[in-house]
Each structure stands twice: as C-alpha cells, then as structure tokens.
C-alpha cells in the first residue's frame, strides 16, 4: 500500500500522448532552433543532416531508450535511480542530477534574452533589434538581463509547481502542437523570400534550401568528417536531452502499460523534425538577405542575423518576428521546465521534500546563480581560454562543464552500467514488459556495449582538447 501512495504522490503522465509531448517538448529546445541550423550551415548542409539522422536512429535511440527505461523501472529521478539499480553507480546518479543544476541558471538567462526580443517585437521596437550592437548592448547592460531572466524563470517554475499532469503534461500538450504549426508556417514563408542586393544579384529562399539540404562533400577530409561527426554527436546529445537526468525523470512518470518503443520512436521523430524545420525556417531566410556570409554568425545567428532578416522584410517582418520569438519561447519553456523538473524530482525522491518546497529551493538557487551569469557580461566579465580552444565567460564556462565534460561522463558511465554490469536485458525486459516489441534489439546491444561509449569517449577527448 505504502508503495502505491508514494507513486501517487510523485504523479504520472495520464498516457503515452502526454508523455511523448512532454519528452518531445524537453528535447525540442533552444539547441534545435539555435545550434542545429548553425552547425548544419558550418558543416556542409546536407552532409551534416545525413549524419545527424543516422546518429539519431542509432546513438540517440540507444541513450533515449536506456534512460526512459531506467526511470520507469525504478520510478525515481536520476539522483536515486542509478544507486537503486546498482549501488556502485550512485555517484553517476549524483553527477547526472548536477547537470540540470548547472544548466538551469544559464538556460533561463538565454530564455530571458528570448523574452526580451519578443517584447521588443511586440512593442514596436523591432527595428532597433536589427541595429549593430543591439544584442551586445542588451547582454552587457546591468539590470535588463537580470529582470528578464527572473521573469522567464518564474514562468518555468509556474509550470513545474503545478505538477506532472496539471503542469508539465497540460502545457506540453498545448504548446508543442502550436510550436510545430508555427515552425512549419515560418519555414514555408522562408522559402518564398527573394532579395536583390546592391550589385544586382538576386537570391532566393529556394537557393538557400539547396545549400541547406544537398550534401556537399567538396574538400571533405577524414579529419573534417571526424569533426563533423563530433559536432553531430554533440548536437544530438544536447538535442534529445540525454545524460542530464531529464529522460530518467520523465520515464519515472510513465505508467507500466505504456508502449515505450512507439513512444520513443515518436520522440525521435518530433525532435529530428523540429531540428530540420528550424534549419528550414532560418537558413533560407538568412541566405536570401545576407548570403553565405550571414550563416557564419554562430550562436549569434538567432539574436543578430535574424532580426536583420526580419527588418529587411519590412512590415511583414515584424509579424514573422513576433511568431518566430513566440515559437522560440515555447520551445525554450518546455525544455527549461524539464531541466527544473529533473532537479525537483531529485529533491523529492532523495530528501522527501514536498514539490512546492523543492520548486522554491530550485528557484531561489537558480535566480542567485542566474544573476551571476547575467553579470558575467559586465561586472564579472573575464576571458578564460578553454581546453577546446574557445574563450569563455561565466555562461560559457557553465555550458562547457555541463555539456562537454559532465554529460559525456554520465553517458559513458550509463553505458558501462547497462552494457556490462547489469546487462542490456535489464532495459530490454523493461521495454517489452508492456507487450511491446523491441524492434532494434541487436543494434541496441552493440550500441550500448561498444559503439556509443567509444563515440562518447572521443567526444570527451575532443572537449578536453586532447584530440
């Protein structure tokens, strides 16, 4: 009896649709909309997409099904799930739980930037966002980023405090379909664009589409392909939100009769679809108005290049800009909700703290660290060279620690635990217990024991600057 009441208190998704929408919402975040198009443009378009899709169906699938099954089997968040499966792996659980703890403050800082832009477009200030130095001016100002970060964090906490059904599931079911419709709409619009520059050269969205989709193997070296592969793995990792305790947390809310296999196929489909559409929405538009050069903006793509594109469209650009930033806000919120939920589930499972108190603790902590992140561009500004060759501020350091160092370690450790200590059958039995077929079983065993940990090891070496 006590066991059931404990589960009842944790909450659960009502069925597979709610779970798929929440998990896809978690997977579809700033990473898909912001990093994917930039990496695709950097790595020869279609070549990157081709590699990414193959990885999603093998590498991504392996990590996703492992974590969701671990969550459902233990009915625990990451902090306690690992130790429950094998005591020796309790430290991995702690590390997995620390990843969202590090990510939440800086993710909400970026979420605040998105809200600021949305507000600018809604209040008729859109034209200024296209000015050179607008973005830098915003992030280096003292108070504005902090206020927006706190507003964004409040929205996130509001959803999490409402619980699994009335919060996460309810809002994911509303936001995800709207998000997909908006992205498809803007993508189609992006393809109809054309512009003529001062030299009389006309560029169209369809030409941009070709650059985005058609693989370009020109000058591709073995080293170049290796770097592309690492970029694709890194992106996928971030994109499907594995190795950060989120999928274990969401898996723990899935009822035993839900068909995990079909749910996971749907999550993979949604995630890859949105990543591809994000590129379709962004790359043709940027190509049309600023040529190939515009695509090398890196992370500034969303905050620097796109507002210029919206400005170049005239009046319709403001409307499209509003829709775009609404889309990005929805994508960001469904993800930051899952990041906060992973932290909250740990506090609830390990220390038996109520949901309300757990959310309050997470919120206070995240606001304090979030303020430090915001001040990293002015008061606490520094330039720290990282082992992987980039130069970092506070936000970049947290991103590097969580994404480049801790996540690969967590995932490698998970593969060792499942592949070699517990045995892949632990996961296979969990998936098939609802009568579901495990369709890629042979592939799964090879991936979890050998291929995935080896790829992750290379990713870790690259992050540490050894490769």
UniProtKB/TrEMBL annotation:
Transmembrane residue ranges: 12-34, 46-66, 94-115, 143-162, 174-193, 225-248, 269-289, 309-337, 358-380, 400-422, 443-464
Keyword set includes Transmembrane: yes
Family: Belongs to the sodium:neurotransmitter symporter (SNF) (TC 2.A.22) family.
Origin organism lineage: Bacteria, Bacillati, Bacillota, Clostridia, Lachnospirales
Location of this chain's protein in the cell: Membrane
Membrane protein topology class: Multi-pass membrane protein
Entry keyword set: Membrane, Symport, Transmembrane, Transmembrane helix, Transport
Keyword Metal-binding: no
Name of the protein described by the UniProt record: Transporter
């Amino acid at each position: 009896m006590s066991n059931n009441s404990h589960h009842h208190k944790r909450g659960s998704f009502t069925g597979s649709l709610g779970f798929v929408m929440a998990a896809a919402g978690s997977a579809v975040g700033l990473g898909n909309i912001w990093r994917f198009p930039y990496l695709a443009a950097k790595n020869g378009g279609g070549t990157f997409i081709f590699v990414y899709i193959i990885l999603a169906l093998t590498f991504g699938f392996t990590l996703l099904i492992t974590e969701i099954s671990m969550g459902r089997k233990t009915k625990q968040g990451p902090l306690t799930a690992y130790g429950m499966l094998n005591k020796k792996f309790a430290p991995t659980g702690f590390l997995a739980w620390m990843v969202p703890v590090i990510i939440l403050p800086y993710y909400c800082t970026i979420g605040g930037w998105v809200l600021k832009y949305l507000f600018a477009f809604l209040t008729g200030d859109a034209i200024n966002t296209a000015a050179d130095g607008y973005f830098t001016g915003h992030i280096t100002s003292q108070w504005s980023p902090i206020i927006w970060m706190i507003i964004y964090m409040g929205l996130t906490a509001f959803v999490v405090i409402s619980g699994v059904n009335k919060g996460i599931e309810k809002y994911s079911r509303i936001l995800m379909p709207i998000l997909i419709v908006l992205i498809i709409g803007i993508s189609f619009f992006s393809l109809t664009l054309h512009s003529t520059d001062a030299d009389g050269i006309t560029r169209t969205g369809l030409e941009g589409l070709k650059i985005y989709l058609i693989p370009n193997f020109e000058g591709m070296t073995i080293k170049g392909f290796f770097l592309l592969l690492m970029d694709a793995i890194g992106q996928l990792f971030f994109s499907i939100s594995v190795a950060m305790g989120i999928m274990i947390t969401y898996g723990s809310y899935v009822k035993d009769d839900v068909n995990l296999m079909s749910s996971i196929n749907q999550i993979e489909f949604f995630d890859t679809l949105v990543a591809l559409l994000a590129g379709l929405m962004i790359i043709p538009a940027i190509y049309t108005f600023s040529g190939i050069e515009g695509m090398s903006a890196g992370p500034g793509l969303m905050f620097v290049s796109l507002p210029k594109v919206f400005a170049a469209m005239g009046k319709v650009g403001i409307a499209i800009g509003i829709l775009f930033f609404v889309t990005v806000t929805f994508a960001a919120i469904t993800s930051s909700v899952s990041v906060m939920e992973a932290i909250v589930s740990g506090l609830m499972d390990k220390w038996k703290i109520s949901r309300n108190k757990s959310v309050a603790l997470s919120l206070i902590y995240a606001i304090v660290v979030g303020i430090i992140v915001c001040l990293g561009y002015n008061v606490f500004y520094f330039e720290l060279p990282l082992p992987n060759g980039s130069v970092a501020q506070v936000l970049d350091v947290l991103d590097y620690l969580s994404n480049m160092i801790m996540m690969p370690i967590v995932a490698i450790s998970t593969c060792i635990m499942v592949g070699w200590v517990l045995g892949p059958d632990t996961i296979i039995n969990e998936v098939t217990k609802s009568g579901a077929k495990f369709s890629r079983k042979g592939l799964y065993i090879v991936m979890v024991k050998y291929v995935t940990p080896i790829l992750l090891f290379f990713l870790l070496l690259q992050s540490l600057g050894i490769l």
